[in-house]
Amino acid sequence: MAVYILKRILQAIPVFFGATLLIYFMVFAMPGDPIAGLFGDKQPNPALLERLRAEYHLDEPFLVQYGYYIAGIFRLDFGTSFSGQPVADVLARTFPVTLRLAVMAVGIAFVLAIIIGLFSALNKGGAFDNSMLVLALIFIAVPIFVLSFLAQYFLAIKLGWFRPTVGANNDWGDLWLPAWVLGFSVYATSMRLTRASTIETLGQDWVRTAYSKGLSRRRVIPVHVLRNSLIPMVTDLGTVFGVLMVGATVTEGIFNVPGVGNTLYQAIIRGENPTVVSFVTVFVVVYVLINLVVDLIYGLLDPRIRYVTT
Amino acid sequence: MSRPDLDRGHYVAPADTMSVPVDVVRIDAKPSNLWLDSWRDLRRRPLFWISAAFVLLVIIVALVPTLFTQVAPNSGCLLADSNKGPTDGHPLGFTRQGCDIYARTIWGTRTSLIVGVLATLISTIVGIVMGALAGFYGGWLDSVLSRIGDIFFTIPYIIAGIVVMSVLPQRNELVLAFAIGGFAWASTARIMRAEVLRVKQADFVMGAESIGMSKFKTLLVHVLPNAMAPVIVVATLSLAGAIVAEATLSFLGVGLGSGTMSWGLDISQAQTNIRTAPMALFWPSLALTLTVLAFVTLGELLRDAVDPKARAQR
């Protein structure tokens, strides 16, 4: 296990540096002078220009600049947002809201996915199974912003069940509508994964053994089938986070949830590139870490993984 | 002559016993291959015909939009018509800028499909090259290419597209396609690599090398054509993903400029009037969703059809 952990961590290191370098390169390759942009139409004083250039290390070669930037990331310094606040402060303020939204969304998605996926697998090929598969296909196809507007228009504006936008002061209860929308963008793949993995487990020898021992269905399904079917769901967590990154940006923007995603959304809409890059970097760093943790957990749960890869 | 083994009474089958063949190869049976089997499976499924017909319709609309509407989508918009309901010749009403919603939705198909197809071409070609080289040559090349793939896999392509499009001063269909396709190839490369690793084991590859064919030619002539099936299938799904990415980027305002017809752009512009004029939001959303749904359905049916294991699981 120790070898597996070490190997997996060593694999994550080049990915981390590669991904941040890639983002940094895309920004570095940007035409135009970032310092001149700060002054707008005014003609800046050359001495001031020189000082600012030195302050932001713009006079150094590309790789040295990247080094400063990476050093900043390790000190949790992700730069300054367009309004002058440190990105780390903005994150600290907005992250709890996004975490709450994400927990609700993933909770909704996984509870529905496990229940519906299990029933679909147990009644494979039946009317319920087929209709749920078609529904899942539709949820996979609907872009998240279309789903957001549908929910906003019909559930909030027409039916009045929810507030159409969330706003500054929000509690768990206020986040229901964006959480359902975000949850459904995650739900479909998770449900199909549960279904496929349950069908596979149902055909295993130990399930037949359990039945032939005389165990009841009510014991075999939850204990022998469901528990083993849920292991592949762990690997899905990494993908789920990727979906949530894009999904939260769009839903928080549309429902005006004051979270991390909304900050990024506003920055994109207003064309505040430095803020966009800072937030994307944070997302990617977190994504690398989450995928690392997911792989470690998976290796812990399923011994075959750590033996095959070591 | 005495043989101890026979004398002890062992049974020896007489030579003239009729033998029953265990594995019959019927020479008169219709020849079959992966694609033929898949086709036989597909043509029995109504969903395949429905999605294929819709995909065909989308392609026709994209190629000749003038077949469906005579109204100019971008010029001749009258602010006096702003958010008006349907009238004669304008069956779906008008946008906030007073443009014909129906004409804009029809013309938006072309933009979506152009960006989608270009982005998919880019991601599929890059994916095939990277995956095939990594899988076929193995060794250090595999390690390097696979790590590069991991890096691109780590950045979701919509997020990468946001950065690229925010940074680039020029915005057109080709730039957008590169921004999406340039970051979407990693999953294609993984699939290609796995498939090349599988095909590489086949006897005909060893045969080709044993008669002195060069490695690169073996890859090109024998391995690649036999490893294409999963990639071609995934390309259909990538196309759906690229269309969603284009719409999302345009919706966020980092896609195509306001002079172009794009469903994402129209949805974004209609969102401020969601209470008073929801139809300007609804129609491009419906067109976008149905198009993506058709490609996703087609792609998944194809994937099931070329994968015998998935066929058995149904």
Q: What does this entry look like structurally?
A:
The complex is a heterodimer of chains A (310) and B (314). Chain A is mainly alpha-helical and 310 residues long. Chain A is 78% helix and 0% strand. Chain A is built from 14 helices and no strands. Chain A has helices at residues 2-28, 34-39, 46-55, 62-74, 87-122, 127-141, 144-158, 176-202, 205-212, 217-229, 231-255, 260-270, 273-301, 303-309. In chain A, helix 9 packs antiparallel against helix 10 and helix 12 (260-270) packs antiparallel against helix 13 (273-301). Chain A is flat, with a radius of gyration of 24 Å. With 314 residues, chain B is mostly helical. Chain B has one domain: MetI-like (MetI-like fold). Chain B contains 13 helices and no strands. Chain B has helices spanning 4-7, 34-42, 46-63, 101-137, 139-154, 157-167, 173-200, 203-210, 215-226, 229-251, 263-270, 279-306, 308-313.
What is the gist of this entry?
The complex is a heterodimer of chains A (310) and B (314). Chain A is built from 14 helices and no strands.
Give a quick set of tags describing it.
heterodimer; A: 310 residues; mainly alpha; B: 314 residues; 66% helix; elongated
Major interchain interface with per-chain residue totals: A-B, 49 and 43 residues
Coarse structural class of chain A = mainly alpha
Relevant CATH superfamily of chain B: MetI-like
Categorize the overall geometry of chain A. Answer: flat
Query: Globular, elongated, flat, extended or rod-shaped: what is the shape of chain B?
Result: elongated
What percentage of the residues of chain B does DSSP assign to strands (E)?
under 5%
Order of helices and strands of chain A: HHHHHHHHHHHHHH
- The helix count of chain B comes to 13
Share of helical residues of chain B: 55-70%
Residue share in helices of chain A? over 70%
The separation of the N and C termini of chain A measures 9 Å
CATH architecture heading of chain B: Orthogonal Bundle
Q: Based on helices, strands and strand pairing, what is the structural class of chain B?
A: mainly alpha
Q: What's the CATH topology label of chain B?
A: MetI-like fold
Number of strands of chain A: 0
